[in-house]
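Retro notes (design track)

What went well: tokenization of the new backbones is finally stable.
What didn't: we kept losing track of which sequence belonged to which structure.
Fix going forward: every design gets posted as structure first, then sequence, in one message. First example under the new rule, 123 residues:
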């Protein structure tokens, strides 16, 4: 995989945990029990990561990079998939991970956000 830093970077986000969803053959990255990233493959067994973005930002990135497509197996307005063997710059993928995590984090209750933030300070 081209982005060998990706797993560690996803797990470095506040409150991030990962699991493996056997029936999906995919690794999920979660915060507060909600998924912010999913790493798996498409029907041709090409490695992808799927991330949630603001719809306008996702549309812009899909126009700029052919290796970013509407979310594979997901809501195509809010989720975007990136081929992990493609040519998207590292900084773009890092930004997508951060944005996805932040969108999901902000959807959590204030109490859950505070608990995650407190836990972050314990690291």
């Amino acid at each position: 995989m081209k982005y060998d830093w990706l797993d560690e970077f996803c797990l470095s986000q506040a409150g991030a945990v990962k699991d493996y969803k056997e029936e999906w053959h995919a690794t999920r990255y979660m915060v507060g029990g909600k998924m912010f990233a999913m790493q798996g493959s498409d029907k041709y067994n090409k490695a992808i990561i799927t991330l949630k973005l603001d719809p306008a930002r996702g549309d812009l990135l899909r126009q700029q990079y052919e290796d970013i497509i509407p979310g594979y197996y997901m809501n195509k307005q809010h989720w975007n998939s990136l081929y992990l063997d493609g040519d998207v710059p590292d900084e773009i993928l890092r930004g997508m991970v951060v944005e996805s995590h932040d969108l999901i984090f902000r959807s959590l209750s204030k109490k859950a956000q505070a608990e995650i933030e407190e836990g972050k300070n314990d690291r």
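Added context from the reviewer: Residues 15 and 118 are 10 Å apart (CA to CA).
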